[in-house]
């Protein structure tokens, strides 16, 4: 009892300590988050609004924008299907190799994106065992859209599954068992019971997955071949423009990526504010 009375309360610090901690946090946010974003837009608009929009409507920039959206639009739905299937299997069933599957889902978090890009080069490159088959059937994987999609899928597929698995495990199987006992089929149970229970966590995972797919650089850089107007996504186009000393163009395209990141941040904050309890329950594990 005496120990409880004398132990300092961590939420009852002096005003000076609180001001110091808040000041340190705000200073770091200003230096490492707000200031870089502001500088991106300042550099993008350095030569005026006309130069800014001219850089954005330049054919190679438009091609990079279209390719980035295309790759994300293909990769994200695949990850949604995989995330739902893997989460349902792991959370609702017991089977041998379950822990191994969980570890494999986390693999892209621990592997460098450059390494994942090199894996696709080894698998589909000119020295792979698949290359004669691909060449015979005129199938282009590397230095084309399929290679970009595969590289993006590899680095983004844990995001949906990792949002759903803890939430589904916490919810258990009671609702599904009740639905099945009332005569519903497996598909009806999934569509009317399981999916509504995880819809906001799924939306959050899709949001994070999309943001990562749009901004991915390392993996797509290895498999793209850097063909201007054909295989350059927006991050790659920014790098090329910057290396060519076209700073206004580079920062103009970078500002679009920054705007997309800000939109993602806004939607993320909205989801956390509106459905914070459901999202938080999925991260307690």
Can you describe this structure in just a few lines?
With 285 residues, the chain is mostly helical.
How do the strands and helices of this protein lay out in sequence?
Blueprint lengths: L1 H5 L8 H30 L4 H8 L2 H34 L5 H8 L1 H4 L2 H12 L6 H6 L8 H12 L1 H14 L2 H8 L4 H30 L2 H7 L9 H10 L3 H28 L1 H6 L4
Helix pairs in contact: 2-15, 3-15, 4-9, 4-10, 4-12, 7-9, 7-13, 9-12, 9-13, 10-12, 11-12, 12-15, 14-15
Written overview of the protein:
With 285 residues, this protein is mainly alpha-helical. Helices cover 78% and strands 0% of the residues. It has 16 helices and no strands. It has helices spanning 2-6, 15-44, 49-56, 59-92, 98-105, 107-110, 113-124, 131-136, 145-156, 158-171, 174-181, 186-215, 218-224, 234-243, 247-274, 276-281. Helix 4 packs parallel to helix 10 and helix 7 (113-124) packs across helix 9 (145-156). The longest helix has 34 residues, at 59-92.
Task: Please name the defining characteristics of this protein.
78% helix, 285 residues, mainly alpha
Name the average pLDDT. 86
Main β-sheet: number of strands, strand sense, barrel status? Answer: none
Give Rg in angstroms. 24 Å
- End-to-end gap: 32 Å
Overall structural class, as computed from helix and strand content, comes to: mainly alpha
Low-confidence stretches: none
Count of DSSP strands: 0
Question: How much helix is in the residues?
Answer: over 70%
The number of helical segments is 16
Oligomer: single chain
**Strand content bin:** under 5%
Based on Cα principal axes, name the global outline. Answer: globular
Order of helices and strands: HHHHHHHHHHHHHHHH
């Amino acid at each position: 009892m005496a120990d409880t009375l004398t132990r300092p309360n961590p939420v009852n610090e002096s005003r000076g300590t609180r001001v110091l901690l808040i000041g340190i946090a705000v200073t770091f946010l200003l230096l490492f988050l707000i200031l870089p974003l502001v500088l991106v837009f300042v550099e993008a608009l350095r030569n005026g609004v006309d130069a800014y929009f001219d850089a954005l409507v330049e054919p190679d920039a438009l091609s990079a924008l279209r390719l980035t959206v295309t790759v994300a639009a293909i990769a994200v739905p695949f990850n949604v299907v995989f995330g739902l299937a893997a989460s349902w299997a792991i959370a609702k069933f017991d089977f041998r190799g379950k822990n191994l599957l969980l570890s494999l889902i986390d693999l892209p978090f621990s592997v460098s994106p450059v390494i994942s890009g090199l894996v696709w080069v080894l698998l589909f490159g000119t020295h792979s065992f698949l290359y004669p088959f691909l060449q015979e059937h005129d199938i282009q994987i590397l230095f084309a859209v399929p290679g970009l999609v595969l590289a993006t899928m590899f680095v983004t597929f844990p995001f949906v599954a990792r949002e759903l698995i803890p939430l589904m495990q916490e919810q258990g199987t009671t609702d599904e068992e009740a639905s099945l006992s009332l005569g519903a089929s497996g598909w009806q149970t999934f569509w009317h019971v399981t999916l509504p229970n995880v819809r906001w966590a799924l939306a959050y995972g899709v949001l994070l997955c999309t943001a990562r797919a749009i901004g991915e650089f390392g993996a797509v850089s290895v498999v793209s071949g850097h063909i201007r107007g054909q295989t350059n996504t927006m991050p790659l186009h920014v790098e090329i423009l910057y290396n060519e000393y076209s700073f206004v163009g580079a920062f103009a395209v970078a500002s679009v990526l920054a705007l997309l990141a800000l939109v993602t941040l806004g939607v993320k904050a909205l989801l956390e504010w509106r459905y914070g309890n459901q999202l938080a329950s999925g991260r307690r594990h």
